[in-house]
Specification:
α5 crosses α6 and α12 crosses α13. The chain is α+β, with helices and mostly antiparallel strands. It is globular, with a radius of gyration of 26 Å. The chain has a five-stranded mixed sheet with strand order 1-2-3-4-5, sandwiched between helices. It is built from 13 helices and seven strands. The model has no long low-confidence stretch (mean pLDDT 90). The two termini are 32 Å apart. It binds iron/sulfur cluster (SF4).
Length: 344
């Protein structure tokens, strides 16, 4: 089975549905988000956040997507009997050039360059008068815009390369960083060989000492390669840990060589605020005490404000709340820093 669903994908689907009306109306239907999220089994807060980020990104590209069509089916016969199909989120034509846009709301699988090129090529080759097309990836979470501009000759060259590499494939696998997202990786010999090579490389003590002590002497290409290897191996290690955990959950502890693999559970206590509130009052909790023990969720506060405000004034009410909170100094921001692989 290669099509799976998970909460991030559901939020992405819901955000796509909300963002669909943006080119026509120029605004987000904030009041409709909850229903669309529910229809798609998505988290409403995550969907709302993605829509807000999508609207911000849209402001940067809106002029070049003037009068854009949305949800356009594309198809092109790249070889006799082989139809390439796609679904572009946005297409706008201006004179002899066109722009094809695709919203991207995911966190992972960051290399979609051939999808953007493919959409641009299909849209361009389906016309007679348009001479140039730009495939644009609109990366919502990263607020990034990824462009590939193609002439008709470029589009034909891309199509020929696809025919050569995919349709007339010579049977040689090309494993790489993409394999960690591939649902076939568990049965792919080429990927297994790559992982074996990467594990051997990473467990070589001389490499470890180079990374820990002589990183400055490595080229940037070597640094990227070693990071990708570590990422791939960590991913496989996490899958092994998860499989062992599932086995213990199903069949009980595993004991061998003086070691026991067992489940270690910890209970977390949670308080129901409405039930606990009168007790805290009875115990004479002051404002400062309450502030210490309470955690306010800004997305929930915004939702309460939205529900209370009359129709047509909801967005304004939420904006006003943001202004009041910011002006009062109630908002503090914390920053977390992670090392991440992104498009160069
Ligand atoms: S795991 Fe195998 S089939 Fe999947 S992308 Fe990698 S090389 Fe290709």
């Amino acid at each position: 089975m290669i099509n799976s669903s998970h909460p991030a994908a559901d939020s992405g689907t819901a955000a796509h549905a909300v963002l669909r009306t943006l080119p026509r109306t120029g605004k987000i239907d904030w009041d409709g988000i909850r229903a669309i999220a529910a229809e798609n089994g998505a988290d409403p807060d995550e969907t709302r956040m993605l829509c807000a980020m999508g609207a911000k990104l849209w402001n940067q590209v809106a002029p070049s997507f003037s009068d854009a069509l949305t949800e356009v089916s594309l198809e092109y016969e790249i070889a006799p009997g082989v139809l390439l199909t796609g679904h572009a989120d946005l297409i706008a034509v201006s004179g002899t050039s066109m722009r094809v846009g695709d919203w991207k709301t995911g966190r992972k699988d960051t290399n979609h360059s051939h999808q953007f090129k493919g959409y641009a090529a299909m849209a361009l080759l389906a016309t007679k008068d348009v001479q140039e097309a730009t495939g644009t990836g609109l990366w919502v979470r990263d607020q990034e815009i990824e462009n590939y501009t193609m002439s008709r000759a470029d589009a034909l060259a891309w199509k020929d390369s696809l025919v050569e590499r995919v349709i007339d494939w010579d049977g040689v696998y090309h494993p790489g960083a993409q394999c960690k997202h591939c649902p076939r990786s568990h049965e792919c010999e080429a990927a297994n060989a790559l992982v074996r090579r990467d594990i051997a490389a990473l467990t070589d003590r001389s490499l470890l000492s180079r990374v820990e002590c002589e990183m400055e002497l490595m080229t940037d290409a070597e640094k990227v390669a070693i990071f990708q290897k570590a990422d791939l191996v960590a991913d496989y290690a996490a899958r092994v840990r998860e499989a062992v955990k599932k086995h213990v959950e199903r069949h009980g502890d595993i004991v061998a060589d003086g070691v026991r693999l067992t489940l270690d559970s910890q209970e977390r206590r949670e308080l129901d605020p409405l039930t606990a509130w009168p007790i805290l009052e009875q115990l004479e909790f002051k404002d400062e005490d309450l502030a210490r023990v309470m955690k306010l969720k800004i997305s929930e506060i915004e939702q309460v404000i939205r529900e209370r405000a009359p129709k047509g004034e909801k967005t304004h009410a939420v904006r006003k709340l943001g202004e009041l909170l910011a002006a009062s100094g109630a908002v503090t921001k914390t920053k977390t820093t992670n090392l991440k692989e992104k498009r160069a």
